Amino acid sequence: MLDEIEFKKILEQLRTELLELGSKRLSLIGETEFEEVVFDKVKKLLPEHEIFYQKGSTSFPDIGIGLYGVEVKTVKGDSWVSTGNSINEGTKRWGVEKIYIVFLKKGGTPDIIVKKYEDCLSDIKVTHMPRYEINMCVAEKGTIFEKIKTTYEKFIDLEIPEKIRVLRKYYLSRSEGKYPYWVDPESGESVTPMSVKSYTHLSPSDKADKIVELFSLFPEVIRGEYDEAATYLLSKHSVFNKSFRDMFSAGGRIVFDYKGGTYNAPQVISHLLKYLKFIVPFIKKRKSLCEDVWEKKFDNDVTAIDYWIDKIGREFELSGEKISRNGERIKLNDVIRYYIEKLGI
């Protein structure tokens, strides 16, 4: 069985061989190509071990070798800082316990640093969800886990709500009561926007676009869970809404037609059906964004839409609300599929 000391020596040899590719090759190599090169070299350095890698997969880390994993990172600029994996680690490879990162800096003089993953996680940045910030040059006692007074192993074992509570406590104490929502949605680096727009001041078409985007990406809004959606709206669009609930439901109930019958449902169903003809095309057009937010991979648009329908159906059931007529209850999933067919989308 491969022990960690041996594995670290293998990674040192891996770095040496990668640098032998030369600065010119490293400065031009693409992210996926670099992953494949790393995978091929790891296979040759560990011929007796079963190694897992799938091109284009969102699995974390990229390469699995029993208890060990290798995450491959590439940055175009002359920097050792990048955005890492979600703190959720929802796509983590089963059985992997010790993760190392192979980080290629292509800018300036191309170079590679190999380091234990947890030892280079310097902060948490919010894009559409909290993600680690990777800093390959972080000081020994400068990791995010040192700051929040825990270890990587303990932190990853926490449920998401508890992780968020731990992080909020730390950031609130550090920023004097102002939670740091203002971050760049692409790089994950903290920024201060030139202005923050109020949702009430948007045009009707802009408001509709935002509702469609949030309904598509965050199905949990159907049950009144708005935290992730609100964070996303702030960080990606710099839009703030103090009455977030009103975007999806103003309360009360509605009646609507389903297969020739009249059914009773909460107001949010009216909003959902109103925007359904835009939600389905959004998921088709922005499938890669949906995959990123949901941390899922789909073979085609149809499977992505099926996932969304099932997810929003489950979220609605969790709300405790119901769609009914004279005691008969129907599932939201069935209603959505009926209207998609009816609308021809």
What does this structure look like?
- This protein is an alpha+beta fold and 345 residues long.
- The protein has 2 domains: 4-174, no CATH class; 197-343, no CATH class.
- The chain is 42% helix and 19% strand.
- It has helices at 4-19, 23-28, 31-45, 144-147, 152-156, 160-174, 204-217, 227-237, 267-285, 287-294, 301-319, 332-343; strands spanning 63-65, 68-75, 81-86, 98-105, 111-116, 121-126, 130-135, 197-198, 239-240, 253-258, 261-266, 323-325, 328-330.
- Strands 1-2-4-5 form a 4-stranded mixed sheet.
- Helix 9 (267-285) runs antiparallel to helix 11 (301-319) and helix 11 (301-319) packs across helix 12.
- The longest helix is centred in the C-terminal third of the chain and has 19 residues, at 267-285.
- The chain is elongated and about 70 Å long.
How many helices? The count is 12
Helix proportion: 40-55%
Main sheet: strand order: 1-2-4-5
Number of domains: 2
- Rg from alpha-carbon coordinates: 23 Å
Question: What general outline do the C-alpha atoms trace?
Answer: elongated
Structural class: alpha+beta
Mean pLDDT: 88
Low-confidence stretches: 175-194
Give the number of DSSP strands: 13
**Fraction in beta strands:** 15-25%
Q: Describe the biggest sheet?
A: 4 strands, mixed
Amino- and carboxy-terminal Cα gap: 54 Å
The run of helices and strands is HHHEEEEEEEHHHEHHEEEHHHEEH
